[in-house]
Amino acid sequence: MQKLEKVAVIGSGTMGSGIAYVTALAGFPTGLYDVFPEQLTRAEAQHRKLLSRGVEKGRLTQAAADATAARITYTGELAEALAGADLVIEAAPENIELKKDLFGQFEEHVGDQTILGSNTSSLPITEIATAVRKRDRVIGIHFFNPAPVMQLIEVIQAVETSDATVEAVVEFARQVGKEPVVVKDFPGFVTTRVGLMLISEAIFALQEGVADRDALDKAMKLGYNLPMGPLALADLVGLDVTLHVLDALYANYKDDRYRAPILLRKMVQAGHLGRKTGKGFYEY
């Protein structure tokens, strides 16, 4: 099995920053790249905060925290982040052309054995792989938010992804303390496809007046032992992201069950996007 020793994370937003923290904490030297310097500054500050909290709560020694911080290189130079990487995890915005462009650039700076992963939650890995020559090493590596806390990694095998690549990524997931689940490259994979249906149906039920917001979320939490209701979850994910993914699922499957509720669309149009704007189904 291919041994992975160095990781490059491309994109230092919420997901990329969290993934870089996870890989560095597990002992992997990690290059974190972003084209926006302010994003890298925020990521570094968040990492310091997480490490400090870990020390305060007794989960980390100061020496372990210092060693973790030293493993992360923050850079605005793609070649520097990719240098010597055995595994690349792309965590750029959910735009297929942007991701394909990045993957094309990766090939200029890494060897043929470097595994190229995407953290996409919904875009087709098979299409992303068309941007590179050696497609058997392209795979989906879907972390969940917040990456330092959530235990699942959805490992997505595209049409041309080799079994050896899957095995290496599954082992990597275990090395960073996560539980991998291998799925095929269908739109929305498993978690996004099923999870978005739960959120969408809850919004339809609210839209139709079946129950009010609090009753609906309470019913789903207590009836299905969920940690939070689907409307609160939509606010956490971001209503714009929820709408974007539903529209992508509908475009791919051409099935009415993936149509987005008009209430969701109107809320996004109004700029009520959930926690990140302070208002969604709830106020924050």
Concise account of the structure shown:
The protein is α/β, with parallel strands linked by helices.
Description:
With about 280 residues, the protein is of the alpha/beta class. It is built from twelve helices and eight strands. It has helices spanning about 15-25, 35-55, 60-70, 80, 95-105, 125-130, 165-175, 190-205, 215-225, 230-235, 240-255, 260-270, and strands at about 5-10, 30-35, 70-75, 85-90, 115-120, 140, 150-155, 180-185. Strands 3-2-1-4-5-6-7-8 form an eight-stranded mixed β-sheet, sandwiched between helices. About 45% of the residues are buried.
Write the layout of secondary structure elements.
Layout lengths: L6 E4 L3 H12 L4 E4 L3 H20 L5 H9 L1 E4 L2 H5 L4 E4 L5 H11 L8 E4 L6 H4 L9 E5 L9 E6 L5 H13 L3 E6 L6 H17 L5 H12 L5 H8 L1 H15 L8 H8 L15
Helix pairs in contact: 1-2, 2-3, 8-10, 8-11
